[in-house]
Specification:
174 residues, 2 domains, disordered N terminus, 4-stranded antiparallel β-sheet, alpha+beta, Ubiquitin Conjugating Enzyme
């Protein structure tokens, strides 16, 4: 009986999530394969209610539906190249994931409306031969240091590490 309650609560959560996503992105459909939920379909870019472009995407949740998702452009439109902010495995790089969580309350809808939308707007401009519009950090460790340094207001790697170490503790002394 406990399993039924947990399952029905999960179904309710997924149904609520699907409804919220489809209010903003009506062409994304929830698909559940086994125990793994994902969204698949067309991500619309619109201005004042008029759709001007679309990207075929898949959103999966490797760590649970209320954590940052893994998003792939699955239509073959964006080359799988780090300079286009796509990892070799097909996952897109919208920003440093932990920074999304540090900026405030996370919701899938706000993530899609903000970083994901901006990512695809940038891709459209790059397709037209323009530069990436939103600024860029390096990839890998140097990029992480740049991103955290910007948020923390420091540039020294050791200072960044100490700040992150403090943030990683449940209770901070002093």
């Amino acid at each position: 009986m406990v399993r039924v309650i947990a399952t029905s609560a999960r179904v309710r959560q997924l149904t609520d999530l699907e409804r919220a996503v489809q209010e903003r992105q009506p062409d994304l459909r929830l698909v559940v394969e086994g125990d793994t939920p994902s969204f698949r379909g067309s991500f619309q870019l619109a201005n004042e209610g008029v759709v001007f472009d679309r990207f075929s995407i898949q959103i999966t949740f490797p760590d649970g539906v209320f954590k940052l998702p893994r998003i792939e452009e699955i239509g073959g439109r964006i080359p799988r190249h780090i300079d286009r902010h796509v990892f070799e495995d097909g996952a897109i790089c919208t920003e440093v994931p932990e920074l999304t969580l540090l900026r405030g309350r996370y919701s899938l809808v706000s993530y899609l409306d903000g970083p994901v939308r901006n990512y695809f707007l940038g891709q459209i401009l790059v397709e037209q031969g323009q530069k990436w519009p939103f600024g860029e950090w390096d990839h890998g460790k140097p990029g992480l240091l740049q991103a955290y340094g910007e948020v923390l207001g420091v540039t020294d790697e050791e200072q960044i590490r100490r700040f992150l170490d403090c943030l990683g503790h449940k209770k901070v002394k002093g």
